[in-house]
Design goal:
Length: 376
């Protein structure tokens, strides 16, 4: 299948900044995440978006992609001098391809191999992502069998060298062709390429040397983690083979949106409603922050759309580089219910100031602020 252009996948231009790429990834990853989107092709689209972001968010990978696209410049035929990455390396390789076993290098089936990496998706609230938390998760993974200690053989017995491949894990198969006799090297089907035969299999793992278990793992989530970021937990993946190291566990975070606050990097943004009187005469109002309520002084004559900054009231940087700020955008709201006396006073004010009365606005901001104060 032909791979799509990574810029096309994220819906950005080739001159897009890192912030634009990050915002596009966040939006698409939420749209196609398998835990949210149950459409049949959502998982494949999510993987495609993730692959595109991993490439374009890395300067070196992006430069390579811009120059070569999906094509690996190291692939091709290297001639007889041993140069090409994916072709023939020289006369010996060519000879082996036709006469010595398919052109593949001999692999030691008993060499240590690292276990598979695992991925776990965790959903956090807005506050949990900002301040971090510690929690336990259960991960299904393959672990070394405690009965046979990974050998696959019944306790008291040991695997024996395969008599068919003599421990190489491969068999040479001869084939007569018009060009002569060709020898192909294939995986030994007697030992499945392990080079060993287990005469008496372990009753616990059935000769596999591994068993499936649910393992409880303690996760320390750093303060300031953001949506789409991941935490690597070394050695918490599946068990290795032949004494090889275990794989890693990657915890990918999804952060729920907040009703009142919005986050951009380490900074917090919100809108705060104030009355016409407060804006005109000035006032001191209470403002909710992630760190608790604080007093904010509104100068007399404040206009709607005026911005205020609360230094250090944002999100802690995930790498420990300080704390972001909270930015407040004030909106002047007009009450929807007025008594006859209040209306007359406003008419008098309008007449004195030489302007017409102002129409009413919605009170939607008030309900949001009330819920933010209550911690709902």
């Amino acid at each position: 299948m032909t791979q799509r252009d990574y810029y096309e996948v994220l819906g950005v231009s080739k001159s897009a900044s890192k912030d634009e790429i990050k915002k596009a990834y966040r939006k698409l990853s939420k749209t196609y995440h398998p835990d949210i989107n149950k459409e049949p092709d959502a998982n494949e689209k999510f993987k495609e978006v993730k692959e595109a972001y991993e490439t374009l968010s890395d300067d070196q990978k992006r430069a390579h992609f811009d120059q070569f696209g999906h094509t690996d410049p190291n692939q091709g035929f290297g001639g007889f001098g041993g140069g090409g990455g994916g072709g023939f390396g020289g006369f010996e390789d060519i000879f082996n391809t036709f006469f010595g076993g398919g052109g593949t290098r001999r692999h030691d089936p008993n060499s240590p191999r690292q276990g598979a990496d695992l991925q776990y998706t965790m959903t956090l609230s807005f506050e949990e992502a900002a301040f971090g938390k510690e929690t336990d998760v259960e991960i299904p993974r393959e672990e070394t069998c405690d009965t046979c200690f990974g050998s696959g053989a019944k306790p008291g017995t040991s695997p024996e060298t395969c008599q068919h491949c003599h421990g190489t894990g491969q068999l040479n198969v001869e084939q007569n062709t018009p060009f002569g006799k060709i020898v192909n090297r294939r995986v030994c089907h007697y030992c499945n390429g392990t080079g060993k035969e287990i005469k008496q299999k372990c009753s616990t793992c059935g000769g596999k040397g591994k068993v499936k278990k649910r393992q409880k793992i303690h996760v320390k989530i750093p303060a300031g983690i953001d949506d789409g970021q991941q935490l690597r937990m070394a050695g918490q993946g599946e068990a290795g083979t032949n004494g090889g190291p275990a794989g890693d566990l990657y915890v990918v975070f999804q952060v729920r949106t907040h009703e009142f606050f919005e986050r951009d990097g380490d900074d917090i943004y919100c809108e705060m409603p104030i009355t016409f009187v407060q804006a005109t005469l000035g006032a001191e109002i209470e403002v909710p922050t992630l760190h608790g309520k604080i007093k904010l002084k509104i100068p007399a004559g404040t206009q709607t759309g005026t911005k205020f900054r609360l230094k250090g009231k944002g999100v802690p940087n995930v790498r420990g580089y300080g704390v972001g700020d909270q930015h407040i955008l004030v909106r002047i709201l007009t009450p929807t219910k007025l008594s006859d006396k209040q209306k007359q006073l406003l008419r008098d004010f309008a007449e004195i100031s030489g302007s017409s009365p102002i129409g009413d606005h919605e009170k939607s901001f008030f309900s949001k602020v009330k819920r933010a104060f209550k911690g709902e």
